[in-house]
Amino acid sequence: MAATELQINSLVKMMIQLYRRMEDPKLAKQYELQRSRYENMSTGGDGGKAGLYGRRISDPKRSTHEASIRELHHTGWADSDFLEFLNRLDRAIQDYHDDSGEAKSTESPGVENTAPDVEFVADAVFDLLSTLPHNDIVYVLNDMAEQLGVLEPDND
Predict the structure, then answer these.
(1) CA-CA distance, 155 to 37, in Å (whole number)?
(2) Dihedral through CA 63, CA 64, CA 69, CA 71, nearest 10?
(3) pLDDT value at residue 48
(4) Could you give the CA distance from residue 58 to residue 82 in angstroms, rounded to a whole number?
(5) Which pLDDT tens digit goes with each residue over 105-145?
(6) Largest CA distance in the chain
(7) What does the pLDDT look like over 78-110, one tens digit per residue?
(8) ∠ at Cα 127 (123, 131), nearest 5°?
(9) Do the beta carbons of residue 28 and residue 18 sit within 8 Å?
(10) Which residues lie below 8 Å from residue 117, measured CB to CB, with a gap of 6+?
């Protein structure tokens, strides 16, 4: 069953409420995490496997929950439904900035740009890689290690 107007509109309202409170760094991270999940699902992904209500910042990094976000909360949604949701969310964000008279920032409000949040990056990488088969994960990690110069050279 495809997404209904009510489902998409309700999800936009929930996400825009979170977006409006992004001056709190924890909420900014939560918004980015949720958005990345919907972007993942818009390209055929499962949104990751997490606790029943989605992974919160305070949750353990590696949930033991077996079902994906898509299976639990968006059964029957097509990739195009997620694209429609993201488009509506972007319009709602633009409307929010137009109404408030402030320019849309390219950075999340409240998130300092002084140093990378290693835990957030690790969580995001885990969320992205956890949906891939084992061999693909190994390939991606080895390729990243090589590009970053942290891979031990072969002793040929």
Answers:
(1) 40
(2) 180
(3) 83
(4) 26
(5) 544 444 444 455 667 677 777 777 878 888 888 888 887 87
(6) 63
(7) 999 999 999 999 999 999 988 876 555 544 444
(8) 155
(9) no
(10) 29, 111
Total count of residues recorded for the chain: 156
49 near 68, Cβ under 8 Å? Answer: yes
Distances (CA, A) of 73 to 50, 67, 70, 88, 153: 11, 10, 6, 19, 45
**Side chain identity at 50, as an amino acid letter?**
A
The DSSP symbol for 152 reads P
* Amino acid making up residue 120: F
How many Å separate Cα 156 from the centre of its chain? 41
Tokens representing 49 are 């496997």
pLDDT 10s digits, 29-58: 889 989 999 999 999 998 887 654 445 455
- pTM, entire model: 0.57
Phi and psi angles of residue 59, each rounded to the nearest 5 degrees, phi first:
-75, 160
Whole-angstrom distance, CA of residue 109 vs CA of residue 115: 15
pLDDT for the residue 60: 55
